[in-house]
What we know:
single chain, alpha+beta, Pseudouridine synthase, Archaeosine Trna-guanine Transglycosylase, Chain: A, domain 4, nine-stranded mixed beta sheet, 7 helices, 18 strands, 33% strand, globular, EC 5.4.99.25, tRNA_psdUridine_synth_TruB
Amino acid sequence: MARKTGRDIHGWLILDKPLGPSSTAMVSRVLRLFDGRKAGHGGTLDPLASGVLPIAFGKATSTIPYIMDATKRYRFTLSFGESRTTDDREGEVLARSDKRPSDEEIRAVLPALCGDVMQVPPVFSALRVGGQRAYDLARAGRPPDLPPRPARIDSITLIERPDADTAVFEVQSGKGVYMRSLARDIALACGTVGHISVLRRTKCGPFDLSHAYEIEQLALDKSAKTRDKAYALPVPLLDAATALVDIPALAVTEAEGKALICGQAVTLAHLEGDVPANMEDVPLWRVTVGGHVIGLCRAAEGRLRAVRMLENHLFFGEHDVDHC
């Protein structure tokens, strides 16, 4: 999402998204509050979901794919007894069941739903089918038949049973897992039907609720703006490279860093620092110079090559980079 006017600001804001607005609407609102030019989010939360919504400004948007691929953690409440068109409490009732599983029955089905599984997405999802969004087709009375998709679910833990009708779970998962589908599948595996009634994301990659601000905390003070002095941001942003902290780090010299920034490969055998023995077995390296992250590189065929470089001029100067 971009604006024609605004400031060039760079970094991550972690928002504790409230119930109601869409993720896109929250990005638009925050972009205006920060008076920024460009922003995007690191993973959609449904309007009826709350919690950790990472928002990238400026050059931090180049690291969004690494947040999208990162491990996430959720807490949700599964309501037994009714399946719904949307697999959450917003939809219309499809089927009912009087069965209420015991704690033991619930725990018994969870191992089969973990690991690398095939998951059928909710009909009301943003997936494209023949060039149209699945939720648009469903709203038009033509719900698509969505095929199962690979998903990785690391763990599912039954946290509590507030009553016989509900169960609270904590889930850790990889990219592209639909919690609404998981709730539906847990109920079906228990021999009943159900839907999500509460959903909250508590962690997304390196970001969790301890980093998050509520939208009410973000008030831009434009009274400090002058012709010669920029006004402060509502809250400080996290560095763009914060999104990459889960990727293994590799320290290189300034000369090696300049070569990588300029698109030149560096021979692994010639790296001056401590070179791990398994460099080519690691998909990506977070390359640093003097403790500063300069970008991501891949080791292959005896060479280290740049995959995506970040704020290069911060460490080597505009002049050096311009004359690679």
